[in-house]
Structure formats: structure tokens, C-alpha cells
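Task: sequence in, structure out. Protein: Quinol monooxygenase YgiN.
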Amino acid sequence: MFALVVRFDCRDLAAAQRFDELTVDVVREIAAKEPGTLTYTTHAVAGEPLARVFYEVYRDRDAFEAHETAEHVKRFHATKDPLLTATRVEILEPSPR
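Result:
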């Protein structure tokens, strides 16, 4: 399994609204076209109206690579990037038991 958390900080409220609209479309495509994507959950951040967080779980690193190179994801990245002031990606590792 391969998992990550991504935080996006939007420029302003209009950018956040547009980001949310784009997210609805890409999440629908991810669910329909990416069997290796096990979880792709998006969140707003309480008390931070310009922040969004995605929690993503993939079958393996290959499934993540397939996700990143999918046309719908590349289109999402290209369209959302101008709306943002910052992006932070954290790769997750399982905790010792």
C-alpha cells in the first residue's frame, strides 16, 4: 500500500470555490477510471477557509504512478495550480506495531 496526504492553500475565496468545483469532477473520474486508487478523500480544513487536504491511498506505488500520469489528473493539476499559493505533500509510512 502507498499513501499520502496533500495540503493545498488557495489564493482567495474565489480560488477555493473553483478548486472545489474542479475537485468534484476529478474525484468522479478517479473513482471511475482508477481501480488501483483505494481511497481518495478530500477535506476542507476547519477554521481555514482557504485550505484543502486530500488523503490518498493506492494499492501500490505503480497505482500511484498510473494516477499521476492519467489525463484527468494531469488536467486537474494544470487547472488547479494557478489557484494555489502553496502545496505540501507528505508520503505516509505504516507505523511500527
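Residues 1 and 24 are 25 Å apart (CA to CA).
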